[in-house]
Write a structure and sequence with these properties.
three-stranded antiparallel sheet, binds adenosine monophosphate
């Protein structure tokens, strides 16, 4: 299975991707996670990506496509994978098609986690993420509060608020999503690959909807 997860920032696709990875035993490829890891290591690519991420803008296509092409050449992807946060532009979607075509492969499903904009703003401004990248658990100060404030329930590491999870940047990211990424919904629909699921409700219910959609 080679799955693309689509959805606005804060739609819960990262959380759902992690759950699906456990269930299906296939890797999650998140371009956002790759950029944050590169930034933590202080690589030139990470530092370049940060200048865009901090403003809520998209990292240029050539950088993103290069990163994904390299990742998709790794040998751990035999059983498939889940793309989370990629593609985000039409150019990226077309580049993905080309990379896969050269490998004699194709995307099997594109799942849209559908959430209204105002709900996304509410969710993102309260989001807290575990600093331990191996854990990466996410909480919400109101909807899914950790047992102890600022501490991850799962691994005990510190929780932090992502630099780009502030209201101004969130609005920027939403605008970018609606303009540049939302058209991909039609792109995958035209290919007959789109599965749309309601992204509002308990996490487990949304997960069940996604499982249904890719069954
Ligand atoms: P995410 O963790 O998916 O919300 O991504 C965080 C930020 O990383 C985005 O707001 C972009 O600045 C950048 N980013 C991640 N994936 C992509 C992509 N496919 N294309 C362009 N920028 C990206």
């Amino acid at each position: 299975m080679r799955i693309v997860l689509l959805g606005g920032p804060g739609s819960g696709k990262g959380t759902q991707a992690k759950m699906l990875v456990e269930k299906l035993g296939i890797p999650q490829i998140s371009t956002g996670d790759i950029f944050r890891a590169a930034l933590k290591e202080g690589t030139p690519m990470g530092l370049k990506a940060k200048t865009y991420m901090d403003k809520g803008e998209l990292v240029p296509d050539d950088v993103v496509i290069g990163v994904v092409e390299e990742r998709l050449s790794k040998p751990d992807l035999d059983k498939g994978y889940m793309l989370d946060g990629f593609p985000r532009t039409l150019a990226q979607a077309k580049a993905l098609d080309k990379i896969l075509e050269a490998q004699g492969k194709s995307i099997s499903h594109a799942v849209l986690v559908d959430v209204p904009d105002e709900e996304l703003v509410k969710r993102l401004s309260g989001r807290r993420t575990c600093r331990n990248s191996a854990c990466g658990a996410m909480f919400h100060v109101i909807f899914n509060a950790p047992k102890k404030e600022g501490v991850c329930d799962i691994c005990g590491s510190e929780l932090y608020q992502r630099d780009d999870d502030n209201e101004k940047t969130i609005r920027e990211r939403l605008g970018v999503y609606n303009k540049q990424t939302a058209p991909l919904v039609q792109y995958f629909a035209d290919k007959g690959l789109l599965r749309k699921v309601q992204g509002v409700g308990p996490i487990e219910e949304i997960f069940a909807r996604i499982e249904n959609a890719i069954a």
